[in-house]
Amino acid sequence: ERILVTEWVDGERLDKSTAGDVPRLCGVALNAYLVMLLETGTLHCDPHPGNLLRSKDGKLVILDFGMTLETDPTLQYSLLEFVAHLTGGDYDSVPQDFIKMGFLKEERLDTVMASGFLEPLTYMFQQAKQGGGGTKVRERIIDEYKTKYPGLDDEELRV
């Protein structure tokens, strides 16, 4: 038997909050996700800014546990390596990370690398690393293209 329970929690999205303790709460969130992964083997598969709130009393609220994945220790370590490579800007290691995590078969690596996929992937990771979510990434890319191609209007850039 399965039972679904929901609860309304008042709070402010961390990415919209101007409270001085937001950096600390981000650290708490990171620690919580790592504890979930490394101690319970559970991966929260939807950790975006809309799922992190600051409650009225200054506590972190993590929302939406509807998409989680039970992981074995090998995958846990591979995920940590992947995140370390992304945050450290070591994008050349990402294809090997994809193999370790099961997203790419090793025998396909040469074909994938020859396709040139790493260049746009690196560009997107660099944009994402600057923060702001999908909207800010899109805005930065559009601004970059406005500078590169001054004759294009906003509508042409959004296609």
UniProtKB/TrEMBL annotation:
Family membership noted in the UniProt record: Belongs to the protein kinase superfamily. ADCK protein kinase family.
Domain ABC1 atypical kinase-like: 1-95
Transmembrane segments: none
Protein's UniProt name: ABC1 atypical kinase-like domain-containing protein
Pfam families: ABC1
Protein's organism: Eucampia antarctica
Domain of life: Eukaryota
